[in-house]
Amino acid sequence: MKVFLTGAAGFVGYHVAESLLRQGHEVIGFDSLNDYYSVQLKKDRLAQLAPQAGFVFRQGDLSVREDVEAILAEHSDVTHIVHLAAQAGVRYSLADPCAYITANMMGHVVLLEAARHLTALRHIVYASSSSVYGLNETMPFRESDAVDRPGSFYAVTKRAGELTAHAYAHLYGLRQTGLRFFTAYGPWGRPDMAYYKFARAITAGKPLTLYAGEGLARDFTYIDDIVSGVIAALVNEPEKGISRVLNLGSDSPTAVSHLVALLEKELGCKAVIEARRRPLSDVEATWSSHEKMTALTGWRPVVSLEEGVRRFVFWFQAYEAGYGNDDGVSDADCSAG
Ligand SMILES: NC(=O)c1ccc[n+]([C@@H]2O[C@H](COP(=O)([O-])OP(=O)(O)OC[C@H]3O[C@@H](n4cnc5c(N)ncnc54)[C@H](O)[C@@H]3O)[C@@H](O)[C@H]2O)c1
């Protein structure tokens, strides 16, 4: 496969690139390297990919037509697209909703406009999100559920992406699969996400914010399971003109307080917990049914939360010690907690 991969410097994109390259595929990576979180971390991920045979990278903005057309003119023989670039993060979408419209809606349309002229293109897999289930309360979340009650602007743009994909499949025959990721975590992860923030706070002996409520739970999905799901979906092409959506989650919802306990164990420090009210943008719980994904592709998650947290902490301690960070965490004495 020759894969055009948007968001290649991002958490999921980096891991998908690693896996595709290991399997001998070509990857044309594209990313704006925006500063929503550490640009250094994005560069460090790219530095792992750069020396590998079959990898090409171009910095550019997906919402800018010329940027996308230029790279695809050079690589007009791409056979597959994995579209992961986005303005991510639920809570930040209250602070800057327009950033989400630009990257996630405009960016998606610009990509599809270019994609529909690629004659060798077989299949587009793009990132949607468990956030589209919004205020739904019936668990587990299934693809057949109504998804018209978003709880954040982020969710609005992810649902809009699914609808956009449907129209492009109908109008131009593009084969597309939207994957609704459920809380991906792991090495090289995102510092804006709770598990990463918790790890930093615990290590530094600083308080971490835990939203009150027994029911606060997430279907945490280890990054290797996310990546194997992306690739399993990519090689499993729907019929021409079909746009489908599939959940990609572990089907194992876990209390967020249990995640904190696992991090405490692996980091060897006690957390200082400050309970606060859950913001309206954060849903109480997520739980994925992956029946449809398994039936279509045979995919199943294999990494337990205990094992995934262990692998994350192993990487986290090495990475943060090597680079330090703005919080001075690498210098912290964890017994302070
Ligand atoms: N990580 C999760 O738990 C999770 C859950 C649900 C959905 N998702 C979705 O999965 C995808 C990957 O998420 P991630 O965790 O790797 O996020 P990430 O922020 O690490 O990666 C996204 C990348 O997209 C790039 N980008 C943003 N706007 C761009 C633009 N206009 N042009 C080009 N590049 C741009 C960013 O620089 C970043 O490197 C996203 O679409 C996200 O919404 C992630």
Can you characterise this structure?
- There is one protein chain.
- The strands form four sheets. The protein has a seven-stranded parallel beta sheet with strand order 3-2-1-4-5-6-11, with helices on both faces. Strands 7-10 form a two-stranded parallel sheet. It has a two-stranded parallel ribbon with strand order 8-13.
- α6 (153-172) links the parallel β5 (123-129) and β6 (176-181).
- The model is unreliable at 327-333 (pLDDT under 50).
- It is built from eleven helices and 13 strands.
- The protein folds into two domains: 2-182 and 221-248, Rossmann fold; 194-217 and 251-288 and 303-336, UDP-galactose 4-epimerase, domain 1 (Alpha-Beta Complex), CATH 3.90.25.
- Helices cover 41% and strands 17% of the residues.
- α9 crosses α11 (305-323).
- It has 337 residues and is of the alpha/beta class.
- The chain has helices at 11-22, 39-49, 65-74, 92-95, 97-115, 153-172, 194-204, 223-234, 256-267, 291-297, 305-323, and strands at 2-6, 26-31, 55-59, 80-83, 123-129, 176-181, 184-185, 207-211, 217-218, 221-222, 243-248, 254-255, 272-276.
- Residues 7, 9-13, 31-34, 42, 61-63, 84-88, 103, 107, 127, 129, 181, 183-184, 190 line the site of nicotinamide-adenine-dinucleotide (NAD).
Detail the topology: elements first, then pairings.
Layout: E1 2-6, H1 11-22, E2 26-31, H2 39-49, E3 55-59, H3 65-74, E4 80-83, H4 92-95, H5 97-115, E5 123-129, H6 153-172, E6 176-181, E7 184-185, H7 194-204, E8 207-211, E9 217-218, E10 221-222, H8 223-234, E11 243-248, E12 254-255, H9 256-267, E13 272-276, H10 291-297, H11 305-323
Parallel strand pairs: 1-2, 1-4, 2-3, 4-5, 5-6, 6-11, 7-10, 8-13
Antiparallel strand pairs: 9-12
Helix pairs in contact: 1-2, 1-8, 3-5, 5-6, 7-9, 9-11
Nicotinamide-adenine-dinucleotide binds next to helix 1, helix 5 and strand 5.
